Model the fold of this input.
Amino acid sequence: MITILFTGETQSATKYYVSPSGNDENLGTSPEKAWQTINKVNSIEFEPADTIAFEAGHVFSGSLSFNSADSGTSEFPVTVGSYGDGRATINSGNQTGLYAYNCAGFVIENLVFIGSGRTDSSGKDGISFYNNLVGDIRLDYIRIDNVEVSGYRKTGIILGGWNGLSGFKNVRITNSTAHDNGDKGINIYGYWPPLQGWANQDIYIGYCKAYNNPGIPDKSPHSGNGIMISQTEGGVIEYCEAYENGWLNSSNAGGPIGIWAWDAKDIVIQYCESHHNKTNNNKDGGGFDLDGGCINCIMQYNYSHDNHGAGYGIYQFDGAREFKNNTVRYNISENDGLVGGYGGINFWATHSSGGIQDTRVYNNTIYVSSNTTGAGIVDFAFGATYIYNTEIYNNIIVTAASKKVLDIPQTAGGWYFNGNCYWTYGSNLQFRWDSNTYTSLGAWREATGQEKLDDVNSGFEIDPQLTDPGKGGTIGDHTKLNTLSAYCLLPSSPMIDSGIDLLSTFGINPGSQDFYGTKIPQLNGIDIGAAESEEASSSSSHKPSLPDIFGLNYNYPNPFNAITIIPYSLVFPSRLAISIYNLTGEKINQLANSYHKVGDYTVSWDGRDHAGKSVASGIYFCQMETVAYKKAIKVAFLK
Done:
């Protein structure tokens, strides 16, 4: 076995140690000569590739502070972490735990941050990266991993800019927990009101938890959010869990959400569980949300349940930029809308920037229990509608007795329902449409023309035969959503192979898998709802393969002696780098390093290193890396 260590150019680096048994007069360059205090750390200007390590198992009082003189780079970041077994704790009282001003190139890892408590009105944020540089500057490279942040008045982890389009790019927040903070768990933000463009780019939040961030009662417009991303172009939130947030929000201007995006473009929220989020004023308290100013965003493969507000919100508020071309697919909602009349999927729009335009909602499964206050799909029209070209296909909506499947009081503008299944246990269906209520699919279809495709009836009023509807409960492990026992299709389900082929009929690409990770289609066609039935079983243990995210294809010709072409593709927008490494792991050339939109691309390599010199014959590795994934192939060069 050959182990390859990918490395770049060398950089002198110093590792500094901080220990309660140390002394600030020491050099700090070994555990035996450690510094003692955070004040000493703050007095030093650090160089790229330096490390500051606090002794694990101990508590250090004070607020870490960094500025532009301390910046690292993406190749040689400044690392702040722990040494020894476990993690060190930073107790910053009512000050920010770690404040980085106008700087980036940092790795923050393996630390616990504790504030003076969310009720301390003088308290601040846990970890804060702030950019107010002039000139629309995006600072590059931040990694926050395996941190726990709690007890802060404001936000646990917060990054953003407040000067034009200045912000951050190439950011990863992973394996981290933000809980018992006042305002929010995790927040990415930028300048408001919106400008032409976005402050942040290539943001990845994965494998994180945000819980028991209740909100600040007197804060407006809203507080108590779990994970929130805004003013961002290109981002992924995945394998995260948000719960028990928002219960102190009292603002009349709006409410909190478990996981959501607003004023953002090309954001994907997937494989997350958001549940038991609340509000104190019947405003929001939902599971997931694409809100004002979202463009080309997707919510997919998520599980929402037992939230005060909607399972999945689709909202456009006053003053937001255009809201267009967003998708909600292969999600599950159970028992959402416990207050305020919210639904499993909820719409609300003002006239701003054209209202809600070109939204696709397909292959979701919604269960409305007897405890909920809304319906399967709800529009809060408030006397007018600004919702245009909304396509709703292949969904399953099941409700308890006397609950509505739809509640849409204003229908002008463009709703298109086709291929959906509607079922109420123990009573007739209820479709509220304009000022009328219809008690069967046939009556609603006849009166409205909905559920007719090329003059042929579509849609179903029939029991979809789901496994354990209403009994999904809490998974509590964001990597195991595919173990959810509820909402699969029984072998006798009439939903199997009954869905509309979205690609051939409407030109909609439904993706490659269902909620449970099962490849679609399985049998003779697409199923209705979030689950695709398999011949052998109704679930599978699946993690998305790299081709679901991006593709790095084999180069041609291979071997080569003059030039070779390397094809690659992206399903999600992202910053992407393609580099060549030799067998020792040294990076010898970089062929691409820029933000890419969705699409197919090629790049060429002529067998030369970064200095323009021809390399020796042999095997090399071409590595493709996005903010979230890596893949490498072998390349043979023969002179």
Summary: The longest strand covers residues 225-238.
